[in-house]
Amino acid sequence: MTAALWAPRAWVQGRWRESVLLEVAADGTWARVAPDTPRAGDADALPGPVLPGLVNAHSHAFQRAFVGLAERRDGAHDDFWSWRDRMYGVALSITPERLHALARHLYAELLHGGYTQVCEFHYLHHAPDGTRYADALAMTRALVQAAVDTGIGITVLPVLYERAGFDAPGLRTDQLRFATTVDDVLALRDGVRALGLAHVSAGVAIHSLRAARASSIAALAERLAGDAAPIHIHVAEQTAEVDDCVAASGLRPIEWLAGHVPLDARWQLVHATHTLPAEVDAVAASGAGVVLCPSTEANLGDGWPDLPRWLDSATPLATGSDSHVTRDWREELRLLDYVQRLVHRRRNVAAAPHHGAPATAARLFERLLAGGAAAAGLGPCGLQRGARADLLVVDTGDPALLERDGDALLDTLVFSSPTRPFTRVMVGGRWVVGARA
What we know:
Layout: E1 4-12, E2 15-24, E3 30-34, E4 44-45, E5 50-51, E6 54-59, H1 80-91, H2 96-112, E7 115-122, H3 138-150, E8 153-160, H4 182-195, E9 200-202, E10 204-206, H5 214-223, E11 231-235, H6 239-249, H7 253-260, E12 267-271, H8 277-286, E13 289-292, H9 294-299, H10 307-312, E14 317-319, H11 329-344, H12 360-376, E15 391-393, H13 409-415, E16 424-427, E17 430-433
Parallel strand pairs: 1-4, 6-7, 7-8, 8-9, 8-10, 10-11, 11-12, 12-13, 13-14
Antiparallel strand pairs: 1-2, 2-3, 5-15, 15-16, 16-17
């Protein structure tokens, strides 16, 4: 473990600071972050500017096997639902051994793309025909071991998954390996916690309102009273989902959640693409967070979120690569604002000069840094005392950064492409990419 590092420039409390000394405590947190400090003789001088790592707040690791296999249309129509049917074919081929190999490959990619923690929305539990493995944690262990192998932090979120749709009595044949009860989900969560591994934690997830019964959601929420870990749920991703929810309950998905679930800071609403202003306001008032997945939402044709309202509402925001068509947070931030530019036909939609945040990338990065930490159930985040000692070293040899060493560096990292991987990545005070990894 490196005890002391020195960066020529580092992103500290929302802005670039010069000559930053970073000291790592024995527990893998930052003991000291001191800008404007000359390099001490024993400090490891880093070869470029330093950023905190971001949390990838929504991942389905097995879908890495599907990337590039659905980019053709052979019929009259193609949307999320037809993509999903093809994705299930891949899901049915995943064994614990293959899941470990896929996740290990993916998590290494995520580290190079600037993520130091991943939230694994995990619903692939049983054999393809629904038969339970002798070890109920077989698929979960594959994910955890992949994280340990690569050095990325992981928050495992076993998923409550009971039915194929609002009016369905149960699951489809190709969904049987997803089947869980409230007891199953809590047992999987407790199994991960019992492993006692560094940088490995667990919360829970609910697949969606269409896939879990209202009574089960209520029972799970009741049994989670007093547990501070995150609770994730897919919600309002598709217009068809919104329509089906209205038909089944008389309410829109987020409207239903806000009225039937004790939303608080533990809850993370994944996608939240199709919203009304009153729904955004209700989520903001509850303290719940939202996880946006720009590359997957674009790839699947989901639609676009009301980003300006989410930002102005002060709702905690995070990002995830979801189906992993991209695996770099710089691409997610770029696409997040570019979609808004196309929709609103104006530039720098995410910037807020009236709030003292005129730089688009900086505003997004800071919001996603804090929101991602909440989504993963982490404590303090960023380059500050007490936060986990995670960092990224920027490759200053990247042609995209030519003549960019001032305040525009972060904007250039996000809005100039292609970009090289980060040269070094640290998680919990240990190098996992570059240096002595």
